[in-house]
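Re-running LysR family transcriptional regulator to confirm reproducibility after the cluster update. Everything else is unchanged from the original entry.
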Amino acid sequence: MKAPRVTLDQWRTLQAVVDHGGFAQAAEALHRSQSSVSYTVARMQDQLGVPLLRIDGRKAVLTEAGGVLLRRSRQLVKQASQLEDLAHHMEQGWEAEVRLVVDAAYPSARLVRALTAFMPQSRGCRVRLREEVLSGVEEVLLEGVADLAITGLSIPGYLGAELCDVEFVAVAHPEHSLHRLNRDLSFQDLENQMQVVIRDSGRQQPRDVGWLGAEQRWTVGSLATAATFVSNGLGFAWLPRHMIERELKEGSLKLLPLDQGRSRNSNFYLYSNKEKPLGPATQILIELLRAFDTLPLDAPFAAPEQA
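Result of re-run:
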């Protein structure tokens, strides 16, 4: 890669000439001599081979090419400044990245709100978000690949901060044969039907949570795929209510009238990597995740006061 011929200082000098209305004013703002500012801009034009300014009376005016390059240079200088700020924050212990793994059943609306509130406080810290299913979340945390984890499973040896409950409901298409029985359903009724099960993304000890042991089952890789299958009449499933509210309202899915177990709640928890000290950015994100977890999913967006 060819090294740039023009330095950031030269771009800043050109910006100062334009922003302050001339070479003398730029020199005063930059605490430099006018001859130094003039030489810097002239040198830039020679290096680039493009005229950046023209003199109109006593005022320096941007050429068309100069206007284009100046606009691009502002973003360049801003990014360089942000990079320097990030290096300073990292020196003070501020993380460059927080790795968050979340069970796919956790309401994404809560994540979006927390991450949106985190952005203006992040000081350049990135969030690497990863979705897993069931024991996949635990494995990622135990392998040290995540700093924070949100899961509905209890992780041995870890203390988790309690989050919201997620309600799973048994559903099928309104025209499914189970609904045609027109009565309360037992588990025996379900055992002979096709069940859609979400694959556990864990590799070491995957779990068949919610599977009834029926021989007929579809195993899919995501909750969204399961909802699509069931809403098209391919079996029944337990799905998070918050993910299928629209399908329930539109009538493509209907709650199964089970005599027991028609819904179940899963408690979700927020865990942190106990092998790694929590940095300031991680602690801010934890507080935001917990704060937004308490708000209703349909509440208007606003950063909670405690965050």
